[in-house]
Amino acid sequence: MLQSQTTSKMQVSMIKAFSDNYIWAISSQNKPALAIVDPGDADVCIDYIEQNNKQLSAILITHHHSDHVGGINKLVQYCQDNAWPLTVYGPENESIPHCDIKLNEHSTFVLNDLALEFSVIELPGHTSGHIAYLAQDSLFCGDTLFSGGCGRLFEGTAAQMLNSLEKLSSLPEKTHVYCAHEYTKANLDFALTVEPSNRELVYYYNQVLQKRAQNIATIPSSILQEKMINPFLRCHRESLMASASEFSGKSVTDPLSAFTIIRAWKDNF
């Protein structure tokens, strides 16, 4: 295990990709080493590496979708051309290009050149093998939890996704949430339809409108913020069950039924 006296202060930077993807660059104080989370686009990552005089040493993958893994091959070649050792981490139950270390719910690992320890959380739902990475107070959760929303159920079940979200909701409230997309405004448009009387949600929505008007990112969020405003973390609440009942026309009295209805409602919103 990583000893506390060697733990570095983690620094997280945003690399924008495609129309709304966020790739996360993890560094540590003044160390040259760099870890990158879900590099769907190699070119923007290489630009970041060269502009910041960094050396890529690790790639962390949450799931197999192309906008999260599409840059791996080029980045592996880039590191080989520069004679940089590179380790690719990914979920053990998904096929990830060049994956060196396969991870599951019980995995922990240390990036020695960053002096950072990570633990892994299995989050099936969006895909069957989706994982998240937790280090210090930062969660890198791919497409499972978004600000104000959650991922679509492409491979998993509603029960799996609800369980995954409950795992994340149980993390310390100060945890920073680094998801992979700028979906917040659209998510909140839906959330307000589901829970229009939520004052924290209304306040947050107005903050988000101001940020997006200035092209400022709304990520990271926090577990505390999401527990106050995200309908998919609030399916145990009477207000969410009432909305699910009204929308579906049948009595909803349990969180899984509420989640199932609200997720299907969002799919067609």
Characterization of this structure:
The protein is 35% helix and 25% strand. It is built from nine helices and 14 strands. It has helices at 42-51, 66-69, 72-81, 158-169, 184-194, 199-213, 223-229, 238-248, 255-267, and strands spanning 10-17, 21-28, 33-37, 55-60, 87-91, 101-103, 108-111, 116-122, 131-135, 138-142, 145-146, 149-150, 176-179, 221-222. It has a six-stranded mixed β-sheet, with helices on one face. It starts with 9 loop residues before the first strand and ends with a helix. Mean pLDDT is 95; it is low at 1-6.
Contiguous uncertain segments of 5+ residues = 1-6
What's the helical proportion of residues? 25-40%
Structural class: alpha/beta
Distance between the termini: 46 Å
- Count of DSSP-assigned helices: 9
Write the layout of secondary structure elements.
Blueprint: E1 10-17, E2 21-28, E3 33-37, H1 42-51, E4 55-60, H2 66-69, H3 72-81, E5 87-91, E6 101-103, E7 108-111, E8 116-122, E9 131-135, E10 138-142, E11 145-146, E12 149-150, H4 158-169, E13 176-179, H5 184-194, H6 199-213, E14 221-222, H7 223-229, H8 238-248, H9 255-267
Helix pairs in contact: 1-3, 5-6, 8-9
Considering the chains and any ligands shown, give keywords for the structure.
single chain; 269 residues; 25% strand; six-stranded mixed beta sheet
